[in-house]
Amino acid sequence: MCGVFGAWSPSGRKVLEDVYLGLYALQHRGQESAGVAWINREGGISSRKGMGLVHLALDQATLAAEQTSCAIGHVRYSTAGGSEISNAQPLTASTSRASLAVAHNGNITNALGIKLLLQNRGAIFHSGTDTEVILHLMAHQPHKEPIDALIDSLVRLRGAWSLAMLVGQNLVAARDPWGFRPLVIGKRDDVYYVSSETCALNLVGASVVREVAPGEVVTFGPDGMDCLPLPVEVKRHFACSFEYVYFARPDSVIDGRSVYQVRKTLGKKLALRSPCPEADLVTGMPDSGTIASLGYAEESAAPYEQTVVRNRYVGRTFIEPTRRVRELGVRIKLNPITEVLTGRKVVVVDDSIVRGTTCQRMISMIRDCGASQVHVRISSPPVRFPCYYGIDTPSRGELAAARMNLTQLGTEVGADSLAYLTEEDLVESIGLPRECICTACFSGNYMEGGEENEPEL
Ligand code: SF4
Q: What is the pTM of this model?
């Protein structure tokens, strides 16, 4: 997970407040820490980082006053390295040729191998992140121009990396050759932006220019904007299908596809594939299943109803985990509407089942309110394999769909029936060619040689 954002103004406009706002819009991609880095008046790099949500980690007023026309930012959800301030990004470094800062979304699958090689040559690592290898690889090429050193470093990486970087006086956006995670360029007046998602461009009033292409490095700096292809040949792309299913904000557009529309289509296809003619109403798991449930209801005879209300302030306030609070469990967050549920046959739509516990609790809560039947429909195929590309899934043994068959899992979560979307329907709903989409957590078809490729340094 994680979100990255960057801004550059050739006319010297202040951009750091926009980066703060961009991170605010990308908060759903990571809540553990937030940070910004910018080119300061002396031409070096300054940074601020903190733990928690953007508004707790960073001070908007201080950043708004900062005179900088080139900056990046990051919100973090840890997939490599623990949740601590030393792993918060952007990571910064100074080499003999340039000051550097990097904000990364994704997971570099051969980072450990690279790290061991560099450590054997005396490199000292300061964080537990996979991202730090990029800075060390660049520092190990002091004879090269910084952008050339960056390109030479990036071609050695495997896995997922959408980057916003500061390299000397340049803002740099780069995307791995497989295109796992989204990265888009926007523009407002003379200011260029790079962002994990278009929803953050909307917030700062920028329009979408285009996606950063898989395997492309885009630089913005004193010499203007330049686009450089990475000299890496790949057999196919791996755009993450889970971004459409769950992870991206529904008001974002990825690869020209509205996440909202894709999610609704998933629900419609699910209704056609696995109807539930006896149902009185269709509802969604708040908030992950809401849009797919609207699509499901549209294709079925039963209407959509909101059956559970989420306390919007959970997550922003801290409740002491006392025994009483633990007993209340999911009710702290979600409260069902008994009057809508009593005596009704209900279809509950959710985006996925990972460990199965959330689904189980939701079904038991709905039954406690008097629902006579609860049928579960999932708007993606069963998650049977872990993700190595930047989404935090548990190990295979903890994945409910890897441990149990459909009938066992239905019984485990307490459903009267359980059905999933097929992989074929998922790919069709996204609308990209099959060979461009990653479905590894559903199918186990990982990127060829992705984990075991040893780097040559
Ligand atoms: S394995 Fe799943 S979550 Fe990970 S990149 Fe592929 S589709 Fe996305």
A: 0.94
